From TrEMBL:
Protein name per the record: histidine kinase
Residues of the full protein shown: 332 to 604 of 604
Leader sequence residues: none
Organism of this sequence: Paenibacillus plantiphilus
MF annotations from Gene Ontology: protein histidine kinase activity
Cellular compartments annotated: Cell membrane
Domain named Histidine kinase: residues: 41-272
Keywords of the record: ATP-binding, Cell membrane, Kinase, Membrane, Nucleotide-binding, Phosphoprotein, Transferase, Transmembrane, Transmembrane helix, Two-component regulatory system
Amino acid sequence: LDLNLVPIFDGNEEFGGVLLVLQDVSAIKRLERMRSEFVANVSHELKTPIAAVKGFAETLLGGAVNDPETARSFLQIIFDESDRLNRLIGDILELSKIESRRVPLMFSPIELEPFMSKTVELMESEAVRKDIGITMKVEPGLYVEADEDRLRQIVMNLLSNGINYTPEGGVVSILVEPVLLPWMEGMNEEDVDYEHIRIMITDTGIGIPKKDLPRVFERFYRVDKARSRSSGGTGLGLSIVKHLVELHRGSIELDSNVGIGSTFTIELPVLQQ
Ligand code: ADP
């Protein structure tokens, strides 16, 4: 609580009393704290690649440039770190746009079977490079009202994580089905108007420890910093996904077992209205 005492004077500048103002500032304080934490995190995240670029450029200028092999490997690091900076800034801007609701969603009906096939195609080269198989099971004839580009961003982010956090030879699978409510059971399929669809993305990867499960949707939270870094992660992917799902009035859940794999389950309303 914020407490303020304001003296009151009447028209003749005579002291008339005191106004007591009580204001609940906990929500404002919390927002302020979150904002300053975010700024601190962003600065920290940006500093690391900038320090690398600067350090390696300095060493090159200091003479390393004369050894072609060293020069080449340092330039590669500078290139990779700039790339990483670029991705970080892109994700930070994206997240801030989504959080301040500056992304107008364009809803249209999307047929999920062709949508998923196309999305998987876009991830194919990344999967092949890591020798990961992608399987897909989509119930035919399912539609959902969504912003197509944003829905693609959601699915690609989850597939990309599945590929990144799964050892070679593993599998990432997609399952799309209607959400069956108890009263729908036993009914003729044509007679049922599904209200929600479910998208499940499962991998056979490294998994996430139970204690980290609730935190992985937080900005910049990573279970294993080194691993996320080496796979080019920004630590913002899942926060972006969660926000986008919520903008579609949907929900996202995560279940995972270390050494066995992870499943992300998204439920979206079929109609947005
Ligand atoms: P990143 O860019 O680091 O991948 P994300 O926000 O996408 O950031 O994910 C946050 C963290 O959650 C990751 O750093 C990783 O530790 C964990 N994670 C996300 N997806 C998976 C997955 N499919 N399997 C195991 N761990 C995962």
